[in-house]
Amino acid sequence: MGCPYGTVSCMIRSRKFKIWLISTCVVIAAFFMYKFFGDFENVRILKPDYSDLLDNNEIPADSNAGRIGEAKVGWIGEARFETVNPKTRKLERVIGFEKVLHMTGDEWQLEKPFMNVYQENIRCDIKADSGLVEVENLEGAKPSAKQAIMKGNVVVHIHGQGKRSDSYIYLDEVAFDSDRSMLWSKDNINFVSREAELAGKGMEIVYNSAKSRLEFLKIKKVDYLNIKEAVKSEEIAASEIENEPNKTAAAASANEPAETATASSDEKEPDDTTIKEDYICLFRENVKIEYEEEVVMADEIAVTNLMFAQKKDKEKIEKDEPQNAEKTSAENNDSKTDGIAKNTRLKQKRDKQSNGIIATVTCDGPMIIRPLNAKEFEEIKPAVYKGFHQLSNSVKNELGRRNLLIAQKIKYNVETEIADANGKVELVFYPQVKTGTQKQKVPFIIGARDGASFSIPDNQAVFFGDVKGVFVRQTDEFEEQNTFFGTKLVADLSQTQKGEDDGASSDISHISILGPGVRLESVKTVDKTKLSHARLKSERIDYDRLTEEIIASGKGKIEYRSTADNQRRSSKGDKLDKPCFTLVEGFTKLVWDTNSMHVRATSDDTSGIHVGYLPVLENGYGPRTTIDTKQVDIDYYEPVAGRNELKKLVASGGIVYHEQGGNEFAGRELVYHASEEYMTVTGSEEMPCMLNGVFANAIEYDIKAGIANAVLGEGIGIMPVK
Prior knowledge:
Blueprint: H1 6-13, H2 15-31, E1 43-45, E2 67-68, E3 71-72, E4 79-84, E5 91-97, E6 99-104, E7 107-111, E8 114-118, E9 123-127, E10 130-136, E11 144-158, E12 167-177, E13 182-193, E14 196-208, E15 213-228, H3 272-276, E16 279-291, E17 294-304, H4 306-316, H5 323-334, H6 337-346, E18 357-362, E19 367-371, H7 393-399, E20 403-413, E21 418-429, E22 444-448, E23 452-455, E24 460-474, E25 479-495, E26 506-526, E27 529-544, E28 549-562, E29 580-593, E30 598-602, E31 609-617, E32 620-621, E33 625-640, E34 643-659, E35 664-673, E36 678-682, E37 689-691, E38 694-696, E39 698-702, E40 707-711
Parallel strand pairs: 17-20
Antiparallel strand pairs: 1-4, 2-3, 4-5, 5-8, 6-7, 7-10, 8-9, 9-11, 10-11, 11-12, 12-13, 13-14, 14-15, 15-18, 15-19, 16-17, 16-18, 16-19, 20-21, 21-22, 21-23, 22-24, 23-24, 24-25, 25-26, 26-27, 27-28, 28-29, 29-30, 29-31, 30-33, 31-32, 31-33, 33-34, 34-35, 35-36, 35-37, 36-39, 37-38, 39-40
Helix pairs in contact: 2-4
């Protein structure tokens, strides 16, 4: 039997999901804004190209046109501005353009603007068809871009590091406002890498330059996010590349000597708070994560400690190659950007299976990334929770027979590797039972009022508050519905032998239901006719997958009723497996071995076990029979599928057997053979055998004939005959 907890276990175990969070969330958020339009400190201006001086509009319109601080830019053709780290003397950023189309004051209208970023954690190239930049020149201050817009085929190429592949962000337009430290786009956004594809609309990014941290990122509408297996081919085929590389966007060597102004004396190293800052990624409104065999649905799904995930991943990979080697590779890859963009848009609806898509994330609301300790930017009204049975038929048909986790909110902590489902939660699981039945499979459903927790380190799932589970077993002959209730459910999981990235589910190795109020109900029916109903109450119930044992611990009780439709014909009306009510109470431990079809109830911590039996006749109830003892062992068998019948019952540790209006036995042990309808009672010195108040060495009772005989009886009875 597969595991109902595999739904969320698959999600939080999948390395591909973590890779996406690193390469998408962290890259887009933390580094897309990294000095995107920062200051021009330590700028080196390369030699201009006058070859494109063709238009009078390209001549500066006033005395302040093209001025960066005290330096006046007197050209209108190709230009590059290089920012160099004053301490390491390495190149950090190149900003440039192919042509200035128009200049008015501090506003520059550019053709083919570009930027290349070289940082320890990011190697990034950005380009567009056109741009508009307003440069702010304040006396005594560093010049900076006040506002900027990049339009037309905006492409952000984020170079992969270690095991992370190259990533591309495609935008129609993106704007920047330094006063608000905000970057935004109202149009479509597409993210593409070997690990993931994201399509959405509308983006807002707020960045804190002083703290060098992302304050807020929001993609207003996420159409889909596809998480993929890594493509094995090294690069996209050259035949798919149609556009020539943008030569002005080629990166200069990071090791090239820097001819730069003196470094600012107040430059500071990043403090610990910046390094230790961590982030949370949120998906909201009807969020759905779909695997091939599993689906996760919630009103909100959050993933925390993203930077910790990046740190863990970085510790496992080899050191990056030298920057100059990266840049050489970048120059070669740059020519592929436009071709990738074109081919990606044409293939967005391609077949998932053929392209290695292992999971798809969709939601009706936004995707948000913000610091873990930041306050919520907007009030969220949670949607009304809908369990499995409240879903529409169209949604159920779409889900099919995939395992399903439904929750109000889910939060996964990358650092602790624990996923918490808050509020109401349900797990819907379709067991792989091989039967010949043509009936539709009915799922195993576990629900809880106060959420659940799924831990990878402990390999465990825990449900809290008013736990209820329903499992329906279907065969050609009968249907058996088992329902359990408790305050807490703990499931230990064992991973299947498949790889952790293949979406494989886990299996249950052990399950525990804790009280107070632990109860198990089992109802067996044929069509709509009830055959039997059993109820088990205890302080705790455990199920072990390896041994297939069910163990009830603590003071407990069993109630059982079989109907006339479940009877086995007998010649005598008082046979013990006729339609009846049966009660077993007072035990402190019950072990049910489903393999050997054996049940043992013991009462080490109580005064004893009481067994009551009341036959059901056509015109009412028959005489009551009771057994009081310390231990009960029951063996049963299945003559036909779905019809369990008693084979043997043994009561030991001292017994008192009583029939209403009939016989009464006492002794050390009672054995009942159901097939022969025959009972024996034996005694010992400590527990002598008695038949209706008369001592005997043993008792033989022919239930079919209604005759009880003493074996070698001696002495005078002390108990009255009833």
